[in-house]
Structure formats: structure tokens, C-alpha cells
Design a protein that fits this description.
Structural class: alpha/beta
Number of domains: 2
Bound molecules: pyridoxal-5'-phosphate
Distance between the termini: 49 Å
Number of strands: 14
Mean pLDDT: 97
CATH superfamily of the largest domain: Type I PLP-dependent aspartate aminotransferase-like (Major domain)
Strand order of the largest sheet: 2-8-7-6-5-3-4
Strand content: 5-15%
CATH class of the largest domain: Alpha Beta
Number of helices: 13
Low-confidence stretches: none
Largest sheet: 7 strands, mixed
Length: 375
């Protein structure tokens, strides 16, 4: 299997740790171990000091799996496999479910893994276009047209990366009905659930509409633990078993310190998410004010869940040229739309420190004036 290079990851690898103002990340501002201890009242530094660093249960610590299962209705620990980030979860779930020649429909634009790995496994991948003209809301009639007799899998990612749009639950329900009626498996990457920006309830999991769906989750995005590398798969027993068998050849198990940290965070999800929602909502206001002040150069569909958005240029230009020159002259990192195979856009992340976001956006505005108007 030889997937194409992962464009977003290559871009981050080149720039992420050398820029001064990173406003490209897709996660909420990461927690520190001390912060988790303060918020939860759990003495994590002491527990980590005394931890013996042997292998862990290859399915994941049972208490962690129970904490994950409790985030969904009608799910038990046995239905969950803990992985090294959602990236491993997606990989294993595709390896378990995709066969040569299968038809796979994937929302697009998307995190490249979601179409690249099925394609590298020999599937015939069709892209289901999510358009800015529709406010990045998927058009369910188009999905029905894309389905053919070979379609075996529909891959979703809502809330959506890169737009930050979570469609109405009725849309998710309809997608699940269409898949369910035809016996098509839904693979739903839900790593951006949890940080609602408009005061409404966070998006439901598609498991609520289709209990047989394969659902992917992560500690990275809404919880702020990307460095812990904890993700999971919740799926039917045969899929979980096949993922576990494949996983034995990839990573054996997750890291023990990370499993402890994730469990403490998930068991105290209400408190942790309230810290994270406050940051997300405050920063969202900063982003929306910036967008209003910069309508001359940029358009924006207001995101409603998570901390990413996918603005576009009002004067068409090469996204990679713009983003590369922005780094060179202002030390500010965005992700060019070209990394998502979509031109004339860039992805912005607004989950990190507010001061850095404000400075990064102000530099972006200054740079755009020079780039588009020679000012
Ligand atoms: C849609 C999507 N799925 C999965 C991942 C991987 O997340 P993790 O850090 O949990 O491996 C990302 C990371 O950006 C993502 O955007």
C-alpha cells in the first residue's frame, strides 16, 4: 500500500514548530498536567511518578474504555478500542472494512486520510462535494446520486474539517437512513464534536441514528490532549475484533501515561469541556470580528462547532503562494486550501491562546493589504 503524501501533515511538519504565530491548529489550547490536576482535583503528577511503565491492555485500559463508552447512548466498554490518536483509529477501521474494488463515498474537502487510505487499499473512491455556496452543508440528494451497486462505505466527518460546520441533526439522520436502507456501512469521524460555538447542544454521534455505524473519536481536538495521542473506535464487535487483530501489527497498545491522563480528563469531561468551550467561544468572537473587518479580502462561513474555519479569498489567488509568503513576511501559519485539494481557501484554527490569535490575525490583515493592493 502506497498512499500519496499527506499534504496537511507535510505542511505542518515543515512549519509548525518554527513560526511565531500558529493560527493553523485544529485543537483547543492543550491542557498541562498541572492544569488537569487543578481542574479535576486528581493528583496526576503523583500518579505518574509512581506509575510502572509496562505494556497496557491492547484494547485499552478498561476504565478508560468505560469512560469513552459513557459518552454515547447504549455503548459498552467492549464496543470500544483505544488507539494512538484518531489517525490510528481511522487507519485500522479502513483496514478492517475496505476491500479491493469496494465503492467508497467520502465527503470532500476532508482530512486527506479519509479518502487516501481507502483509495490506497484499492477502493473506488467518489468524493461527495461539500460546497461553500451551500454554507458547507452537505446536499443529501447528491449523496443518493453518488451511490451505486458497489458502494460499501460512506465516510463522514461532521463537525467538518476544514469548515467547522456541523449540519443539523436532521441531515445526519437522513444520511443514516439512506445508508441503512441500502445496507451501506457509515464510517463517521467525529473528532470535532463537543465545542459548540452557538450555544446549541453539541452534534449528536451518528450512532444515535445508526447503531451499527463505525465511529471515530479523539482526545486531541475538543479535549486539548493532542500530545497524549489517544483516540478510539466504537463499532460492531466484528469490526472491533478485526481492528484489534490489525493493531497487533501496528502499535500493540497505547501509552500508559496517556491512558491515565485521558481517563481522568474524560471522567471529568464536564469541567474540562467548560474550560475548553469558554476558550473556543471567546476566540470565535475574535475571529468573527476580524472577518467583519476584513470582508474586502476574505469571505467566511461562520463555523458552529470546533475551532477550525475555511475562509476564502475574495480575489482568487494561489493559496500556497499566499500562505508561504505570509510565513516569510509575518511569521504567521495558516494551512493553504491546496493541502485539501481546494484552491482559493485557507484553513484557520482559533483554539489556541487568544493573544496569539489576535496578533496572528492582525498580521494576516496587514499582509493581505500588501498582497492584494500593494499597500
Ligand atoms: C478529521 C480528522 N480525523 C482525525 C484526525 C487525527 O486526530 P488525532 O490527533 O486524534 O490522531 C484529525 C487531525 O487533524 C482530523 O482532522
Amino acid at each position: 500500500m502506497r498512499p500519496q503524501p499527506f499534504q496537511v501533515e507535510r505542511w505542518f511538519s515543515a512549519h509548525e514548530f518554527s513560526v511565531a504565530f500558529n493560527i493553523a491548529e485544529s485543537c483547543i489550547k492543550p491542557l498541562t498536567v498541572n492544569e488537569i490536576s487543578r481542574i479535576t482535583g486528581h493528583d496526576l503528577p503523583l500518579e505518574l511518578d509512581e506509575m510502572s511503565l509496562g505494556y497496557t491492555d491492547s484494547s485499552g485500559d478498561p476504565r478508560l474504555r468505560r469512560a469513552i463508552a459513557s459518552m454515547y447512548p447504549d455503548l459498552s466498554a467492549e464496543d470500544v478500542l483505544v488507539t494512538n490518536g484518531a489517525i490510528e483509529a481511522n487507519y485500522l477501521a479502513f483496514a478492517a472494512a475496505v476491500n479491493l474494488g469496494d465503492g467508497v463515498i467520502v465527503v470532500h474537502p476532508a482530512y486527506q486520510q479519509l479518502y487516501e487510505i481507502p483509495s490506497a487499499l484499492g477502493a473506488r473512491v467518489k468524493r461527495w462535494a461539500i460546497r461553500k455556496e451551500n454554507g458547507f452543508i452537505p446536499d443529501v440528494r447528491e449523496l443518493a446520486d453518488l451511490i451505486d451497486r458497489d458502494t460499501r462505505l460512506i465516510v463522514l466527518n461532521f463537525p467538518h474539517n476544514p469548515s467547522g460546520i456541523a449540519p443539523d441533526p436532521a441531515v445526519l439522520r437522513r444520511i443514516c437512513e439512506i445508508a441503512g436502507e441500502r445496507g451501506i456501512v457509515v464510517h463517521s469521524d467525529e473528532v470535532y464534536r463537543g465545542l459548540r460555538l452557538d450555544g446549541r447542544e453539541p452534534s449528536p454521534s451518528v450512532r444515535e441514528f445508526l447503531p451499527g455505524a463505525t465511529v471515530i473519536g479523539s482526545a486531541s481536538k475538543a479535549f486539548g490532549l493532542s500530545g497524549a495521542r489517544i483516540g478510539w473506535i466504537a463499532a460492531k464487535p466484528d469490526i472491533i475484533r478485526r481492528c484489534a487483530e490489525h493493531r497487533d501489527y501496528v502499535s500493540i497498545c497505547s501509552a500508559k501515561p496517556s491512558e491515565l491522563i485521558a481517563r481522568v480528563v474524560f471522567e471529568n469531561a464536564t469541567k474540562i469541556l467548560s474550560r475548553n468551550r469558554r476558550i473556543a467561544r471567546e476566540n470565535y468572537e475574535v475571529l468573527m470580528n476580524w472577518a467583519r473587518d476584513n470582508e474586502e479580502f476574505f469571505g467566511l462561513a461562520s463555523p458552529n462547532e470546533g475551532v477550525v474555519a475555511f475562509p476564502w479569498f475574495t480575489s482568487p489567488c494561489s493559496s500556497e503562494d499566499f500562505c508561504t509568503k505570509l510565513i516569510q513576511s509575518e511569521d504567521v501559519l495558516l494551512v493553504p486550501g491546496s493541502c485539501f485539494d481546494v484552491e482559493n481557501h485557507f484553513r484557520i484554527g482559533f483554539g489556541y491562546a487568544r493573544e496569539s490569535l489576535e496578533e496572528g490575525l492582525s498580521r494576516l490583515s496587514r499582509f493581505a493589504r500588501g498582497y492584494f493592493k500593494g499597500a
